[in-house]
Amino acid sequence: DTEVTQTPKHLVMGMTNKKSLKCEQHMGHRAMYWYKQKAKKPPELMFVYSYEKLSINESVPSRFSPECPNSSLLNLHLHALQPEDSALYLCASSQGAAPYEQYFGPGTRLTVT
Amino acid sequence: GESVGLHLPTLSVQEGDNSIINCAYSNSASDYFIWYKQESGKGPQFIIDIRSNMDKRQGQRVTVLLNKTVKHLSLQIAATQPGDSAVYFCAENSNAGNMLTFGGGTRLMVKP
């Protein structure tokens, strides 16, 4: 199984809402990532979890809160977002902390109204 | 191709021709590089990777070339097919950890 799954596929939320994005992999990977991708742009790294611990936070605003409940799951909790946060949110996983290929999920298309 | 402003560079090729997509990377200390393919509405899909101790690596219909002297990476696709139409990103690992930095992307359009 080389699949990373993400739910929901689409999400529309108001600026006062609280929502969560979910990501799951069953490849035994020990590193998981959140990326943000705007239209016609490359993915931009937000967070890295390595062995279930947050190892990298790319100066992401606190309205985005990641969580790694176990080695297979990664969540991104959203609160008080702004319209400019509308984007495709991608989850990825890789074998470990050394440079390895990252496998991406299909993404969650988020619209903030 | 490299990203210029808000518009992705586009490479248009005839079906059956070979395609070459170029990428200039930024960090001479980068030691690992990946090419990804992203189709509309999907996440990036791994195509091929190369480490800095190599200058060429071949996969099925794809070849990646690495020129460390000029910090240049290229992806060659042989006998390009309509299903190859997508945006292609190069990515570099520029520190000892597992951070990837993506290039701007090139849109490949295959004409039947």
Describe the protein's topology:
The complex is a heterodimer of chains A (about 110) and B (about 110).
Chain A: E1 4-7, E2 10-13, E3 18-25, E4 31-37, E5 44-50, E6 53-57, E7 64-70, E8 73-79, E9 87-94, E10 103-104, E11 108-112
Parallel strand pairs in A: 2-11
Antiparallel strand pairs in A: 1-3, 3-8, 4-5, 4-9, 5-6, 7-8, 9-10, 9-11
Chain B: E1 10-14, E2 19-24, E3 32-38, E4 45-51, E5 56-58, E6 62-67, E7 72-77, E8 86-93, E9 100-102, E10 106-111
Parallel strand pairs in B: 1-10
Antiparallel strand pairs in B: 2-7, 3-4, 3-8, 5-6, 6-7, 8-9, 8-10
Concise structural overview:
The complex is a heterodimer of chains A (113) and B (112). Chain A has 113 residues and is mainly β.
Q: What would your notes on this structure say?
A:
The complex is a heterodimer of chains A (113) and B (112). Chain A is an all-beta fold. Chain A contains no helices and eleven strands. The mean pLDDT of chain A is 94. In chain B, strands 1, 3, 4, 8, 9 and 10 form a six-stranded mixed sheet that branches. In chain B, a hairpin with a 4-residue loop joins strand 6 (62-67) and strand 7. The interface between A and B is medium-sized, with 28 and 27 residues.
Characteristics:
heterodimer; A: 113 residues; mainly beta; seven-stranded mixed β-sheet; four-stranded antiparallel β-sheet; 11 strands; B: 112 residues; globular; disordered N terminus
